Sequence to fold (460 residues):
Amino acid sequence: MTDPAHHVRPEDHDPAVWLRAVAWLALALGLLALPFVVILMGDPPAARGLTRDLALGLGFAALSLAGLQFALTGRLKALLHPFGADIVVVFHRFLSWGLLALMLGHFGMLYIWHKDDLGVLNPLQAEPHMTAGRVALGCFIALVATSELRKRLRLDYLWWRYLHVALAVTGFGMAIWHVLGAGHFTGADGTRGLWLGVTLAWLGLLIWTRVLRPWRQSRNPWTVTENRDEGDGVHTLVLAPKGRPLRGWRPGQFAWLAVGGSPFALREHPFTISTAPDKGHHLRFSIKPLGDDSKRLAATPVGAVAWVDGPYGTFSVDREADAGGFVMIAGGVGVTPVIANLHALQERRDPRPVILLYANDSWDDIAFRDQLAAIAQDIDLRVIHVIKTPPKGDAWPPKGFTTRDGMIDADALADLLPRESRDWPHMLCGPPPMLAAVRKALLSMGVPLRRIDSEIFEMV
Fold:
């Protein structure tokens, strides 16, 4: 019998991981403060009024934050590892709102109190660097608006990604032009050198994410060897490596998948790898056609070429060497990373108990039902299917399955989870409203917050 600790990377429980997280946060704060430090280290600018200086300071802070956003979206594994990719994505989203607030504050304060600094607003008459600043503001407003309202605007995922990249690159480039052209506190060699460095770092990130990384992927294609119907519309694509297999892959992680075309295109989606590395080098991606492009992916023919960038994420049993057991709670297709972790435990014949609460709207909606039953034959796995709208008649509940009618709420958790499971890791994946309710109920039951882990971002 395999010791589960042999599959755990010791650094996951190493204080150095936390130190790296603190170091990244300190570095981010330092980068945001750097423009002000460089300015003040030279000849301190003469005070020209609190509101004017504050407005200019907001502009510098906005540009620093804009540059930081490119690092957050660059899939830099050294940055993602201490936090998890999902946390970084959420952080990027909230910082985008902060960035927009800073830019609007910069423009608004000058417009209200210092119109002379703004000059002519008509772009046909204004100085080019001033128009560049207004173009940058418009780009970032459009970027945030189209990201938050993409589904309401019915923007196709692929075209939204093209638009997102174009707006971000144009907006940042225009903002750099505006700052250097306006010349406020940037005339000294030190400050001009700073913004030159920022620009070069930004260009380096763009080259890495849009040229070098896709080039590396192009040298390592994959082939779709099977398209398997899992039920409830879920299709599993099985991929075989034509070159080097995926490295450093742990159960429950995800990767960016593109099928057909070229890795230089932006037609890639993040999907959980729905199997474990213990089962071999083949990758499986289980896809439910909920979005505009996922329908195309779910219908991928056998033999198609694919491109994979990964692995990413920290939603893995491999982080829990000392756990006495596991509680896993999934809703709908959110069971995919749970399946991957269960496959790992199955291959290792892990003796620890696992309780899975799996919520679906109806009995026919359940994906991987047979797989779960097979896994339960090999390990100490108890699966409870929680059905919102159960069928009527004498055939319900079905023989051989443990079921509960309704939803996974506080009452269900109190009834189904034994007291000894309170200190086990609780791994949650499903729709955000469900996760929020389950997390609140678990905390009220006495489950420590550190024992609750979840995938907190929605895939498209």
Remarks:
- Residues 397 and 403 are 7 Å apart (CA to CA).
- Confidence is low (pLDDT under 50) at residues 1-13.
- The radius of gyration is 25 Å.
